[in-house]
């Protein structure tokens, strides 16, 4: 089995995310979680963030909407342009612009979603120290199959999808896969809806057992997406003299509310095995993304007007187009030196992108009364800022050696990266350049007991470029992070289960902080730390029962800042604990044969509401449920038909998911009900 193959059931044994080679999870000296297709389907995930709800170290329920997928990994993340999105697809980084142009991949086209927690720069270049979310596309299949699904639900949901695949030629050398999806659904906020059209073709050519070429295409059109905006803590999280702000309240303007996104990608994955020692791989992808954003949002720094029920607002807009090419060349050598086995990986990675940005500043909009909102009052469109073009090129050289001696598995790797960003002002013809480089590495060891027990320890580093300059005009240096991690994994032979516990300590330096001597500028004097413990268990205990459990404890701290009052404070919007449990039971026979019941519970812990930790977002407990019925079990004439109903936040809890300031909080998603009828043949 390889790291791109479908996972039978809920428990994976092999992944390529942690090493870029097909490696057993037990032999990777870092925490890796694999969310297979079966789990995505069981839980009816409609976004990659949804699929991560039962994964340790991950907080993905930060806000409602499909504009961006804001994911926090081991405490590191952000909002808006600073958000950490699922950023790796088929081993290559997705493209991202400077404002709202970010790629979001619908999970209907994915075979698995994987999370490598902790620094990943040694293989992928610039990345958050908290980790990466890596997605694997559905690939052509050797066995023919066809599936169609119709879906409805609350909020006027209407959805249709198909998934086709199989061999093209009798000898199986050519095979195909074609996925498609159309969706339209309202959101819990007035005037807001989401629409999506997805098409993902794939073609595989296998002239012999040693040569594989897979062409991967992708098109996604989001003609309307939900930008519901944020709300002040007073009225949502806390009582207000004017009353509570309703969850369905829309703080924007119906006539000036748009987020249109079109994405197109074409690429390939090529592999050729010369002999028992040498294998070469090349992954290449071209991507294009167009976005149009128009929105009105509450002034989070001063949300209230003259009276408590009036909210001050501002408008902004942007148009952005990004073109990018991602390339990863790999040479793998498998050999032995005496008793030591080696898997050497040498690689050259490149990503180049060009972003054309036409955006506005912020303009005033008449305030709105959240108790009796009046919309469509006239306001002036904010003026355009100078149009810019950003050319960004990133090159990385990396090497890794996976050594095996008896029960020991040792991984050592290093990578040198160069990053060059040119920004041109098309109005003034001025330009700026930011040139960064960094070396990152990882060393780790695992002891593999015959019983399936695998204690491990590792040390890894990462970097991220920091865009901008200080008051002196000097460009910022990249942030650097280092992590120590130790843990134990357990995957007994012959049993369909996986258990892991890990402890980690991450420190990040060169973090931007407010310049105390020069307002509106920053200095790189900050440092932050994230420590925690994670637990994950997934198992198929019998032919009938599946279990998934996860626990996370996080201790995040600001260690240095130009503002002494912020030292010792927790990270914004990061829960101190996360707990989840999912159980899925299939009735094995009798009158209930074909029926499956599932339920889940998610506990999201308390989080800081602003950098000063002046208030907290309280913990919340949410319940999910699902029922599925194989109609063929009741009537052989209905073989292939399946019906299902899923409910997230079953009891429709109204809660605040996260805040980034006293004027910036997000309600969590209310009850979502999805009913599907599918046929597979």
UniProtKB/TrEMBL annotation:
TonB-dependent receptor plug domain sequence ranges? 26-132
| Domain of life where this protein originates | Bacteria
The keyword Membrane is annotated on this UniProt entry: yes
Keywords, alphabetical: Cell outer membrane, Ion transport, Iron, Iron transport, Membrane, Receptor, Signal, TonB box, Transmembrane, Transmembrane beta strand, Transport
**Membrane topology note:** Multi-pass membrane protein
GO cellular component terms, alphabetically, are: cell outer membrane
**Tagged with keyword Iron:** yes
Q: Which GO terms describe its molecular function?
A: siderophore uptake transmembrane transporter activity; signaling receptor activity
Q: Which NCBIfam families match?
A: TonB-siderophor
User: What's the protein here called?
Assistant: Iron complex outermembrane receptor protein
